[in-house]
Amino acid sequence: MRYEELRNHGQRWTLDDTEPTARSLVPAVHKAIQILSFINQQPRAVTLSAIIENTGITKSHCFSILRTLVHHGWLHFNPDLKTYELGTGILRDVSSITLEASPFFVANSIVQDLPLKTDTSCILSEPHPDGGFVVVGKANAPGKLEISYPVGHHYPRDTSAHMKALLSWVEVSEVEAWLADWTPVSYTSQSATSMQEVWRQLELTRERGYALSIDEFTVGISAIALPIFDFSGQVVYILDCVGLTPDITQRQDTVAEALIEAVGEIHRAIGGLPPAGFPAVG
C-alpha cells in the first residue's frame, strides 16, 4: 500500500509517494546515498549549494555527510573550487564486485590528478604481447612543458624506465627469460647495453623503491616509474612521471613520493596485489 506524505526538505515542502517500509530507513544513510547518486549523475564536480538544492537536505546535515564521505575517500573535495566529485575510495570498498573488470578507468582517473602533485607529464602504458609497451593514458601539468607520447604510441621493450619497472619485482626466472630474448640497443650513452648492467639496475630499483631513468632513452629527458599489479599479482600497467632531466633530478624525491602514493591508491581501488618488498605509502 502506498500513500502520500507532506515532507519538509530543508527550505522546501514536497508531497511524496512513500512506502510504509521507508519509515525503517536510517536517515543519514539514506541521505548519503541520495548525495552519491546525485553526484554520480553529474557530468562534472558539483558545489555544496547544488547538492542541497537537488536533494533537499539541510545545509548543516549535508555538510556533515559530505565531510564523512570525503574522509573515507568516497568523495573528493577540491578546496580551490569548493566542489565535490566521486572518489576512488568507493571502488576500493566495493572491489569484490569489480575485480574482474578492467582497472583502466580507475588507474586513468588517478593519473589525471597526478600531474598536479608532481608538476610532470604522467603516462600510463600497458605491456604489449610483443614485449613492448603501449600508451593508453596520459595527463600533463597545467602551464608546464608537455613531454608525452600520443595514446597508442608503442615503446620498445627495453625503454629504460618501463623495463626496470616491469622486471624489478618479478621472479628471477622471468627476468632471465626476458634477457634471453633481448638484443641491446644503445639509445644514448647512458643506456644499459649488457646483462650485467641490467641486473645491477634492477637491484638499484628495488633498493630505491622506484625505477629511475636519467637520459637513458632520450638525452635531456628523465622518468620515474612503477608497475601496477592486478588482483592476481600480474603487471597490468606501467605508470611513469616524465620531465626535463634537471627538473626530475632536482625534485626526484618529491615526484617519487607522489608516484608511490598514486600507485598505492590504484592498488587499493582495484584490489591489486603487489609482491613483497614493493614500496608502500608511509
Question: How would you describe what is shown here?
Answer:
This protein folds into two domains: 3-87, Arc Repressor Mutant, subunit A (Orthogonal Bundle), CATH 1.10.10.10; 101-270, Beta-Lactamase, CATH 3.30.450.40. The strands form three sheets. Strands 8-7-6-11-10-9 form a six-stranded antiparallel β-sheet. Strands 3-5-4 form a three-stranded antiparallel β-sheet. The protein has a two-stranded antiparallel ribbon with strand order 1-2. It is elongated, with a radius of gyration of 23 Å. Helix content is 39%, strand content 24%. β4 and β5 (83-86) form a beta hairpin. It has eleven helices and eleven strands. With 282 residues, it is an alpha+beta fold.
Q: Let me know the largest β-sheet.
A: 6 strands, antiparallel
Number of strands: 11
* Global geometry: elongated
* Order of helical and strand elements: EEHEHHEEHHHEEEHHHEEEHH
Low-pLDDT segments: 1-6, 13-21
- Overall radius of gyration: 23 Å
Helical content, roughly? 25-40%
Class derived from helix and strand content: alpha+beta
Mean pLDDT, nearest integer?
87
- CATH homolog superfamily of the largest domain: GAF domain
| CATH class bucket of the largest domain | Alpha Beta
Number of structural units classed as domains: 2
Report, as a whole number of angstroms, the end-to-end distance.
55 Å
Please name the CATH architecture of the largest domain: 2-Layer Sandwich
Beta content comes to: 15-25%
Named CATH topology of the largest domain: Beta-Lactamase
Task: Identify the strand order in the major beta sheet.
Answer: 8-7-6-11-10-9
Keywords: DNA-binding, Transcription, Transcription regulation
Protein name: IclR family transcriptional regulator
Domain HTH iclR-type: 26-88
Domain IclR-ED: 82-272
